[in-house]
Specification:
Layout: E1 2-3, H1 14-21, H2 36-56, E2 63-66, H3 69-84, E3 90-94, H4 99-110, E4 114-118, H5 128-134, E5 139-143, H6 157-167, E6 170-174, H7 186-189, E7 193-197, E8 208-212, H8 227-230, H9 238-253, H10 255-276, E9 280-282, E10 293-298, H11 303-312, E11 315-316, H12 332-336, H13 341-344, E12 347-351, H14 358-379
Parallel strand pairs: 1-11, 3-4, 3-5, 5-6, 6-7
Antiparallel strand pairs: 2-8, 7-8, 9-10, 10-12
Helix pairs in contact: 1-9, 2-9, 3-4, 5-6, 10-14, 11-14
Amino acid sequence: MIYLDNAATTPLDPGVRAEMEVYFGEVFGNPNSIHAAGRQAREAVENARETVAACLGASPNEIIFTGGGSESNNLAIRGVASARRSRGRRIVVSAIEHPSVLETCHALEREGFELTIIPVDPTGLVDPAAVADAIESDTILVTVMHANNEVGTVESIAVIGDICRERNVYFHSDAVQTTGKLPIDVDALGVDLHSLSGHKIYGPKGVGALYIRSGTRLHAQITGGGQEKNRRSGTENVAGIVGLAAALKRSVDRLGSEAAAETALRDRLLTEIPERVPDTIVTGHPTRRLPNHASFCFRGVEGEAVLLALDQIGIAASAGSACSSGSLEPPHALLAMGVPPDYAHGSLRISLGRQNTSADVDAVIESLPPIVAKLRSLARPAPV
């Protein structure tokens, strides 16, 4: 199989797996127990917290471990909404956020909060000036993702962060797609809350983290034993946390070389696929995009049909967010960008990983044109 769906999930790095293995058996204590077995597990969790913090330019006491990116996003948004509802009830959010952000914001709207949804331009960029205009006296939170999972556009997070700081409004960014792929410094970005996930960076599934800037008011959404500094109760997933930290450290250490290799492969896809497949548009920003991300829309075909045809020849890709799989609707980000429906239905996302080679890209470039041509011929009305 040629695996080109790394924006959905990545394979577990063998070195990360090796670091995790001891915590599945030999070191099994509850990190909240005071005996030696518990202290050993607690040490592993705190060492991981220090590693994650160092990779983000944060302090260890600003890192909370969660069950993944979606939980981190929920905790950030619901936690701030609960803590600051007496100050105001307005949340500013971009139109192209991940469902774990948009659906959470809409759920809060049904609970009495007010949303201001910021549009994007045809490349998927959020205009910082539009964010500034949207902030009102009752705004308590702005949430804009660092990079879009469907089209790969990287947003002007540092500029938006400056705006939010000037207006005394908390700023959250879903950085699940960028952490470990782009240089991250939470102070330089100006974020108060920053979400990440293990399985996007060659770590395990089911574990994530949320950076919470010191002094940020946030109420826990999972209550119980008061773990994770009373921000997220529940016995910590020690093996998963160790794996997340190890994966992030490895990704950060390799960031420059991996980004360069993936960018070269990505640019071949962005250039050659539109040349070989008529009526194709590249989605996302032409230059301000993730190094491993190429996305397209083919007129007159269904993206799911393209994916199935690729899968039959051993190529795994995606039509958009894996969290929306099974939906026959075009990705909401494409519609928000103004992509015509006859193109938006034919979306394809190719996301590269450290395991991919030029031969993998060759296979896609050679395979796609006949697949799309055949699907278009089948969709064409029969002559009368």
